[in-house]
Design goal:
By secondary structure, the protein is an alpha/beta fold. It contains seven helices and five strands. The protein has a five-stranded parallel sheet.
């Protein structure tokens, strides 16, 4: 199994907010990637909490994230996961993370237990 992780938005938000399980994310962070879609979700949540663009940029720059672009291949793979994940209620961001993890042969790191109910072709690890 790979020692590379792909962070779901829930995992990165757990770290940023110091929620239960954040230590697992810190440990994985040096070997982690995050897709641009999931990073967009994180930025949106930070905005919802009233953070300014400068504060968001500063906070994220401290994490030294390795961001992977959402390209046509990932878009297709994410779309094709819709049928397998519909019953579990997974979002586009969830599917984008799983598609990236599958592409990289990495472990998708998440706090979303619904992911355990699907076979999306990626290894999944819960942070809590």
């Amino acid at each position: 199994m790979s020692d590379i992780f792909v962070l779901d938005a829930s995992a990165l938000l757990c770290l940023i907010n110091r929620e239960r399980g954040w230590e697992s994310v810190v440990e994985a962070l040096p070997r982690s990637r995050i897709g641009a879609v999931n990073l967009g979700e994180v930025v949106a949540r930070m905005c919802d909490r009233g953070m300014t663009p400068d504060a968001i940029d500063t906070a994220l720059s401290l994490l030294d994230l390795h961001v992977i672009e959402f390209d046509a291949e990932l878009a297709r793979a994410s779309g094709l996961l819709r049928q397998k994940t519909r019953a579990a209620g997974l979002s586009l961001g969830d599917r984008a993370c799983l598609a990236l993890a599958a592409r990289l042969g990495a472990i998708a790191l998440t706090a979303d237990r619904a992911w355990l109910d699907v076979d999306a072709g990626a290894n999944i690890e819960m942070i809590r």
